[in-house]
Design goal:
By secondary structure, this protein is of the alpha/beta class. Helices cover about 50% and strands about 10% of the residues. Helix 1 crosses helix 2, helix 10 packs across helix 11 and helix 13 packs across helix 14. The chain is elongated, with a radius of gyration of 24 Å.
Length: about 290
Protein backbone atom coordinates (compact mmCIF):
# COMPACT_ATOMS: atom_id res chain seq x y z
CA UNK A 1 0.00 0.00 0.00
CA UNK A 2 2.79 2.44 0.90
CA UNK A 3 4.52 1.73 -2.40
CA UNK A 4 1.29 2.46 -4.26
CA UNK A 5 0.99 5.75 -2.37
CA UNK A 6 4.58 6.70 -3.26
CA UNK A 7 3.97 5.88 -6.92
CA UNK A 8 0.64 7.70 -7.11
CA UNK A 9 1.58 10.78 -5.07
CA UNK A 10 3.35 12.85 -7.78
CA UNK A 11 0.66 12.14 -10.37
CA UNK A 12 -2.28 14.57 -10.80
CA UNK A 13 -4.96 11.88 -11.14
CA UNK A 14 -7.84 11.25 -8.72
CA UNK A 15 -7.33 8.53 -6.11
CA UNK A 16 -10.03 6.33 -4.59
CA UNK A 17 -9.14 5.00 -1.14
CA UNK A 18 -11.06 1.94 0.00
CA UNK A 19 -10.98 0.19 3.37
CA UNK A 20 -12.88 -0.59 6.52
CA UNK A 21 -13.61 2.05 9.15
CA UNK A 22 -10.59 2.96 11.26
CA UNK A 23 -7.90 1.64 8.92
CA UNK A 24 -6.33 5.05 8.28
CA UNK A 25 -7.74 6.26 4.94
CA UNK A 26 -7.44 9.92 5.98
CA UNK A 27 -3.78 9.39 6.89
CA UNK A 28 -3.23 7.78 3.49
CA UNK A 29 -4.83 10.80 1.81
CA UNK A 30 -2.61 13.21 3.73
CA UNK A 31 0.46 11.12 2.86
CA UNK A 32 -0.49 11.30 -0.83
CA UNK A 33 -0.61 15.08 -0.59
CA UNK A 34 2.59 15.32 1.43
CA UNK A 35 4.58 13.18 -1.00
CA UNK A 36 3.15 14.93 -4.05
CA UNK A 37 5.29 18.00 -3.47
CA UNK A 38 2.31 20.22 -4.25
CA UNK A 39 2.30 23.29 -2.01
CA UNK A 40 -1.44 23.87 -2.26
CA UNK A 41 -3.85 23.25 0.61
CA UNK A 42 -5.35 19.97 1.81
CA UNK A 43 -9.09 20.46 2.36
CA UNK A 44 -11.26 17.71 3.82
CA UNK A 45 -15.04 17.31 3.61
CA UNK A 46 -16.88 14.46 5.33
CA UNK A 47 -19.78 13.87 2.98
CA UNK A 48 -21.66 11.80 5.53
CA UNK A 49 -21.48 14.34 8.35
CA UNK A 50 -23.11 17.33 6.63
CA UNK A 51 -26.82 17.67 5.88
CA UNK A 52 -27.73 17.70 2.19
CA UNK A 53 -29.11 21.24 2.52
CA UNK A 54 -25.68 22.45 3.69
CA UNK A 55 -23.39 20.17 1.69
CA UNK A 56 -23.84 22.05 -1.59
CA UNK A 57 -22.76 25.30 0.05
CA UNK A 58 -19.89 23.58 1.87
CA UNK A 59 -18.55 22.15 -1.40
CA UNK A 60 -19.22 24.98 -3.85
CA UNK A 61 -19.67 28.04 -1.64
CA UNK A 62 -22.42 30.65 -1.79
CA UNK A 63 -22.96 34.30 -2.45
CA UNK A 64 -24.31 36.77 0.07
CA UNK A 65 -28.10 36.65 0.11
CA UNK A 66 -28.33 33.29 -1.68
CA UNK A 67 -30.52 32.02 1.16
CA UNK A 68 -31.78 33.20 4.53
CA UNK A 69 -28.61 32.65 6.55
CA UNK A 70 -26.17 33.69 3.80
CA UNK A 71 -24.98 36.88 5.48
CA UNK A 72 -21.67 36.96 3.59
CA UNK A 73 -19.94 35.33 0.65
CA UNK A 74 -18.60 31.88 1.52
CA UNK A 75 -15.78 30.07 -0.29
CA UNK A 76 -16.60 26.39 -0.62
CA UNK A 77 -14.22 23.46 -0.29
CA UNK A 78 -13.46 23.34 -4.04
CA UNK A 79 -12.38 26.99 -3.98
CA UNK A 80 -10.41 26.62 -0.76
CA UNK A 81 -8.59 23.59 -2.20
CA UNK A 82 -7.71 25.35 -5.47
CA UNK A 83 -4.15 24.37 -6.37
CA UNK A 84 -4.14 21.54 -3.84
CA UNK A 85 -6.17 18.50 -2.76
CA UNK A 86 -9.85 18.11 -1.96
CA UNK A 87 -10.39 15.01 0.18
CA UNK A 88 -13.97 13.74 -0.05
CA UNK A 89 -14.36 11.34 2.84
CA UNK A 90 -17.35 8.96 3.07
CA UNK A 91 -18.09 9.63 -0.60
CA UNK A 92 -20.71 6.86 -0.67
CA UNK A 93 -22.93 8.96 1.62
CA UNK A 94 -23.08 11.85 -0.84
CA UNK A 95 -26.71 12.54 -1.95
CA UNK A 96 -27.54 11.91 -5.63
CA UNK A 97 -28.15 15.58 -6.44
CA UNK A 98 -24.75 16.57 -5.05
CA UNK A 99 -23.11 13.67 -6.89
CA UNK A 100 -24.24 15.21 -10.17
CA UNK A 101 -22.81 18.62 -9.24
CA UNK A 102 -19.49 17.10 -8.13
CA UNK A 103 -19.30 15.14 -11.38
CA UNK A 104 -19.65 18.40 -13.32
CA UNK A 105 -17.05 20.13 -11.16
CA UNK A 106 -14.52 17.34 -11.71
CA UNK A 107 -15.15 16.92 -15.44
CA UNK A 108 -15.17 20.65 -16.27
CA UNK A 109 -12.81 21.98 -13.54
CA UNK A 110 -15.34 24.66 -12.69
CA UNK A 111 -17.98 25.26 -10.06
CA UNK A 112 -20.89 27.61 -9.53
CA UNK A 113 -21.42 28.85 -5.97
CA UNK A 114 -24.99 28.87 -4.72
CA UNK A 115 -26.61 32.14 -5.78
CA UNK A 116 -23.84 33.04 -8.26
CA UNK A 117 -24.46 34.07 -11.88
CA UNK A 118 -21.19 32.70 -13.30
CA UNK A 119 -18.88 29.74 -12.96
CA UNK A 120 -15.52 29.81 -11.21
CA UNK A 121 -12.53 27.87 -12.51
CA UNK A 122 -10.84 25.57 -9.99
CA UNK A 123 -7.92 23.17 -10.24
CA UNK A 124 -7.96 20.54 -7.54
CA UNK A 125 -6.83 16.97 -7.18
CA UNK A 126 -9.63 14.78 -5.85
CA UNK A 127 -8.97 12.05 -3.31
CA UNK A 128 -12.09 10.18 -2.25
CA UNK A 129 -12.53 7.55 0.45
CA UNK A 130 -15.20 5.12 1.56
CA UNK A 131 -15.71 1.87 3.45
CA UNK A 132 -18.64 0.99 1.18
CA UNK A 133 -18.71 -1.15 -1.95
CA UNK A 134 -19.18 1.53 -4.60
CA UNK A 135 -19.48 -1.01 -7.41
CA UNK A 136 -22.43 -2.59 -5.60
CA UNK A 137 -23.98 0.84 -4.96
CA UNK A 138 -23.73 1.61 -8.67
CA UNK A 139 -25.57 -1.62 -9.49
CA UNK A 140 -28.29 -0.67 -6.99
CA UNK A 141 -28.62 2.78 -8.54
CA UNK A 142 -27.45 4.56 -5.38
CA UNK A 143 -24.18 5.93 -6.78
CA UNK A 144 -23.57 7.50 -10.19
CA UNK A 145 -21.49 5.29 -12.43
CA UNK A 146 -20.06 8.34 -14.22
CA UNK A 147 -18.82 9.77 -10.93
CA UNK A 148 -17.24 6.48 -9.90
CA UNK A 149 -15.48 6.35 -13.28
CA UNK A 150 -14.08 9.84 -12.66
CA UNK A 151 -12.91 9.02 -9.14
CA UNK A 152 -11.60 5.51 -9.76
CA UNK A 153 -8.48 6.36 -11.76
CA UNK A 154 -6.08 5.09 -9.09
CA UNK A 155 -7.60 2.70 -6.55
CA UNK A 156 -5.74 1.97 -3.30
CA UNK A 157 -7.09 -0.35 -0.61
CA UNK A 158 -6.05 0.30 2.97
CA UNK A 159 -5.96 -3.16 4.60
CA UNK A 160 -7.47 -3.94 8.01
CA UNK A 161 -5.25 -4.71 10.98
CA UNK A 162 -6.06 -8.40 10.60
CA UNK A 163 -4.07 -8.37 7.35
CA UNK A 164 -1.06 -6.53 8.77
CA UNK A 165 -0.52 -7.90 12.23
CA UNK A 166 3.18 -7.14 12.00
CA UNK A 167 2.21 -3.43 12.22
CA UNK A 168 0.24 -3.76 15.47
CA UNK A 169 3.21 -3.42 17.85
CA UNK A 170 4.48 -0.26 16.14
CA UNK A 171 1.01 1.27 16.01
CA UNK A 172 0.48 0.44 19.69
CA UNK A 173 3.76 2.16 20.58
CA UNK A 174 2.71 5.28 18.65
CA UNK A 175 -0.67 5.33 20.40
CA UNK A 176 1.02 4.86 23.77
CA UNK A 177 3.46 7.70 23.15
CA UNK A 178 0.62 10.11 22.42
CA UNK A 179 -1.61 9.09 25.33
CA UNK A 180 0.76 8.65 28.33
CA UNK A 181 0.33 4.88 28.24
CA UNK A 182 3.03 2.55 29.57
CA UNK A 183 2.99 -0.80 27.76
CA UNK A 184 4.53 -3.89 29.33
CA UNK A 185 6.48 -6.17 26.98
CA UNK A 186 3.86 -8.92 27.34
CA UNK A 187 1.27 -6.68 25.66
CA UNK A 188 2.66 -6.89 22.12
CA UNK A 189 2.37 -10.63 21.40
CA UNK A 190 -1.10 -10.62 22.99
CA UNK A 191 -2.33 -7.73 20.82
CA UNK A 192 -1.30 -9.60 17.69
CA UNK A 193 -3.76 -12.38 18.55
CA UNK A 194 -6.79 -10.06 18.55
CA UNK A 195 -9.34 -8.73 16.10
CA UNK A 196 -10.21 -5.08 16.78
CA UNK A 197 -13.59 -3.53 16.20
CA UNK A 198 -12.72 -0.34 14.35
CA UNK A 199 -9.20 -1.45 13.39
CA UNK A 200 -6.60 1.16 14.44
CA UNK A 201 -9.30 3.23 16.13
CA UNK A 202 -10.41 0.14 18.04
CA UNK A 203 -6.85 -0.62 19.10
CA UNK A 204 -6.47 2.92 20.37
CA UNK A 205 -9.75 2.77 22.28
CA UNK A 206 -8.78 -0.49 23.97
CA UNK A 207 -5.37 0.83 25.09
CA UNK A 208 -6.75 4.15 26.31
CA UNK A 209 -9.66 2.53 28.15
CA UNK A 210 -7.37 0.01 29.85
CA UNK A 211 -5.02 2.77 30.99
CA UNK A 212 -7.91 4.90 32.31
CA UNK A 213 -9.74 2.15 34.20
CA UNK A 214 -6.88 -0.20 35.15
CA UNK A 215 -3.93 2.23 35.32
CA UNK A 216 -0.38 2.06 34.04
CA UNK A 217 1.48 -0.02 33.19
CA UNK A 218 -0.90 -1.72 30.78
CA UNK A 219 -0.25 -5.48 30.83
CA UNK A 220 -1.70 -8.44 28.92
CA UNK A 221 -3.67 -9.43 32.02
CA UNK A 222 -5.22 -5.95 32.29
CA UNK A 223 -6.10 -6.01 28.60
CA UNK A 224 -7.80 -9.40 29.04
CA UNK A 225 -9.78 -8.05 31.97
CA UNK A 226 -10.86 -5.00 29.98
CA UNK A 227 -11.90 -7.14 27.00
CA UNK A 228 -13.91 -9.36 29.34
CA UNK A 229 -15.69 -6.27 30.66
CA UNK A 230 -16.24 -4.91 27.12
CA UNK A 231 -16.27 -8.01 24.89
CA UNK A 232 -17.23 -6.12 21.72
CA UNK A 233 -14.04 -4.05 21.72
CA UNK A 234 -11.76 -6.92 20.68
CA UNK A 235 -11.79 -10.68 20.41
CA UNK A 236 -9.38 -13.47 19.48
CA UNK A 237 -8.54 -13.60 15.79
CA UNK A 238 -10.69 -15.92 13.71
CA UNK A 239 -8.97 -19.31 13.35
CA UNK A 240 -8.16 -21.13 10.15
CA UNK A 241 -9.09 -24.75 10.89
CA UNK A 242 -12.36 -26.37 11.99
CA UNK A 243 -10.83 -27.52 15.29
CA UNK A 244 -9.56 -23.99 15.98
CA UNK A 245 -12.91 -22.53 14.97
CA UNK A 246 -14.78 -24.71 17.47
CA UNK A 247 -12.37 -23.72 20.24
CA UNK A 248 -12.62 -20.06 19.26
CA UNK A 249 -16.43 -20.11 19.33
CA UNK A 250 -16.44 -21.90 22.70
CA UNK A 251 -13.94 -19.52 24.30
CA UNK A 252 -15.69 -16.44 22.92
CA UNK A 253 -19.10 -17.63 24.12
CA UNK A 254 -17.80 -18.32 27.62
CA UNK A 255 -15.95 -14.99 27.85
CA UNK A 256 -19.02 -13.03 26.79
CA UNK A 257 -21.29 -14.94 29.16
CA UNK A 258 -18.97 -14.22 32.08
CA UNK A 259 -18.78 -10.56 31.12
CA UNK A 260 -22.58 -10.33 30.86
CA UNK A 261 -23.05 -11.86 34.32
CA UNK A 262 -20.26 -10.00 36.08
CA UNK A 263 -18.17 -13.16 36.46
CA UNK A 264 -20.93 -15.20 38.11
CA UNK A 265 -20.14 -18.79 37.07
CA UNK A 266 -23.58 -20.20 37.88
CA UNK A 267 -25.38 -17.44 35.94
CA UNK A 268 -22.95 -17.70 33.03
CA UNK A 269 -23.47 -21.47 32.84
CA UNK A 270 -27.23 -20.97 32.85
CA UNK A 271 -26.93 -18.36 30.10
CA UNK A 272 -24.85 -20.70 27.92
CA UNK A 273 -27.00 -23.72 28.71
CA UNK A 274 -24.43 -25.98 30.41
CA UNK A 275 -23.96 -27.31 33.94
CA UNK A 276 -22.17 -25.07 36.42
CA UNK A 277 -19.69 -27.85 37.22
CA UNK A 278 -18.71 -28.11 33.55
CA UNK A 279 -18.00 -24.39 33.29
CA UNK A 280 -16.12 -24.41 36.60
CA UNK A 281 -13.97 -27.29 35.39
CA UNK A 282 -13.25 -25.52 32.09
CA UNK A 283 -12.15 -22.35 33.90
CA UNK A 284 -9.82 -24.39 36.10
CA UNK A 285 -8.19 -25.89 33.00
CA UNK A 286 -8.05 -22.50 31.26
CA UNK A 287 -7.35 -19.89 33.96
CA UNK A 288 -6.54 -17.20 31.37
Amino acid sequence: MLQLIRSAAPEPYPVLLLGASGTGKELAARELHLLSGVKGPFVEVNCGAIAESLLESELFGHRKGAFTDAKDNHAGAFARADGGVLFLDEIADMPARIQAAVLRAISESRIRPVGADADVDVRVRIIAATNADLDALVRMGRFREELLTRLDVIRITVPPLSERREDIADIARMIAAGNTIELAACVFPFLETLEFRGNVRGLRNLLVRTRVFRQNPVTAAKLKAEIAANPTSAMPAMPGTLHEAVAWARDTTIRRALAATGGNIAEAARLIGIRRQALHGYLKRHPD
